[in-house]
Amino acid sequence: MGTPPFVLASASVARRRLLQIAGIEPLVCPSDFDESQVQIDEPGLLVKTLAQRKAETVAPQFQSALIMGCDSVLAVNGEIHGKPANPEEARQRWQKMQGHFGDLYTGHAFIDLPQNRTLVKCQVTRVYFAQLSSDTIDAYVATGEPLKCAGAFALEGRGGLFVEKLEGCHSNVIGLSLPLLRQMLADLGYSVTDFW
């Protein structure tokens, strides 16, 4: 079995960068899937469903490829948060999150066209947030970074300053779990080194 092209069904710069750091140069093909079509209250099931739908949206564009879809949300006190809609929502979210923790869920979906197989899994990482003043929250929101990220923070950006600790996979919080990626590729019969 030859190694198919690796397609990332996401416009996320952070996910692409993680793959590149791991030695995988993906073909980037954003799905533009309308996430509002999916209404699920359980965060793990939500991100798995969205990741799979994104990969499925892109799959018809290829004859032979390994397509990866991902989606992340942050759950705080049972409430699911994707990207904040505006600065005020980001500010309110940080007022609740600061000094507490949230669970970051990332769904990973692979559609392996040559083998006609689909594999979908979820990784969860607990994120502990620092106690912040209102001025610090306002300054962070003003950078615009929180508006681009599930959970209103980017671990690999300024938001990393406001994370006290993580329990679980570090790269999962950035956009995809490298250990889970390796395991899922193995489950499909590949080695991650096949894509170097």
TrEMBL record:
Catalyzed reaction equations: a ribonucleoside 5'-triphosphate + H2O = a ribonucleoside 5'-phosphate + diphosphate + H(+); a 2'-deoxyribonucleoside 5'-triphosphate + H2O = a 2'-deoxyribonucleoside 5'-phosphate + diphosphate + H(+)
Gene3D superfamilies for the chain: 3.90.950.10
Pfam families: Maf (PF02545)
Cofactor field: a divalent metal cation
Keyword field contains Iron-sulfur: no
Keywords attached to this entry: Cytoplasm, Hydrolase, Nucleotide metabolism
Major site of localization recorded for this protein: cytoplasm
Family named by the database record: Belongs to the Maf family.
Protein name per Swiss-Prot or TrEMBL: Nucleoside triphosphate pyrophosphatase
